[in-house]
Task: structure prediction
Amino acid sequence: MDRKEVIKITLELMKEKKLEKTTIGEIVKRLDLSPGSLYYHFKNKSEIYKEMADYSLEEITRNLNEARTAESNKNRLFILTRALIKFLEEREEILFFLISMKGSCYLEEEIKSQDFLINFKNILLTEQQDMNYKKRMLLKLNMFLGSIYEVLYDSKLVNGRNLAEYEIRDIHASFWGNEILDTKYNN
Amino acid sequence: MDRKEVIKITLELMKEKKLEKTTIGEIVKRLDLSPGSLYYHFKNKSEIYKEMADYSLEEITRNLNEARTAESNKNRLFILTRALIKFLEEREEILFFLISMKGSCYLEEEIKSQDFLINFKNILLTEQQDMNYKKRMLLKLNMFLGSIYEVLYDSKLVNGRNLAEYEIRDIHASFWGNEILDTKYNN
DNA sequence: GTCTATAGAACGATAGAC
DNA sequence: GTCTATCGTTCTATAGAC
Result:
């Protein structure tokens, strides 16, 4: 049994069935597996959720890092914004999980939101910035993520369409338009 | 049996137990009611969810309208932003429901996100504005709401603290800082 | 390490007495 | 209009054979 396969299939299933209908029974049916086998590898449902969160974070991080190194210098924040949007549009199941995991009782408190932020923080903040700046940037980052989720929930998950380029530009401009951070990666 | 009491209690219960643990059994236990009695008034679980969504929207609308008429003229958008944040901080159960209902299989598609937007749209948009402007403003509105949800999820629901005034100002400034809409209510 | 079988509880929803 | 009792199903999770 491939552990990662379980996570991928469960994410997919969750998008289709929503939270309350994504049961162990449904998961093993989709995997063509037995409950006993699944519980041999995962101690309970929470562990599956936990690994879905880890997997989602890893996938996003990997994707953003690729985007970050692929193109160089100018408009780095635009490239990152665009990459994040494109990634979540392509991986709807991850988008849905990120949006709906907050309401689930199977995800323990600690995992929930902050881990995702930390990653963006690393991309956007350097060590030498002062506390006040960091706090405000964290707020802005939180706002940024929330905006992406809400907009993509509406456009992609409800209406099934991808954002137009001008919309991506609008989103980027709203948050990072004339931001000093734009210059951070221009060195 | 008070219909509205069921909705209020269920919202409260949901914040504590999360989506998958908010069952009919838990609801009737909290209400000190019998299942038969609950099902005499609500045809199924979806109907309860539907009315929670309606109730949440009504409460927000009522609250924003009060804020809108109470204070006059200048900085209307700041007052609305602040009122929305304060309302959701005070009514955590509504905040949690708005955040987590997207992942639920008991809320039918149609209700989901748009209805909440329509209300803000009415507040922010007038009839005579052109389509392009409206579309962009709708995107911005969506971003605005998503930001509020994400920020308050983190600050209030996870960390249990209210936003500081400077944070509210930051949020307002990010979206409506030097916006022509500021003048809309100054007539 | 996968299976079948099933425990044991909880689920949404209903029937019928009062 | 509220109750008790319970239907039939589904749930998470486990035991034990292979």
Summary: The longest helix of chain B spans residues 131-158.
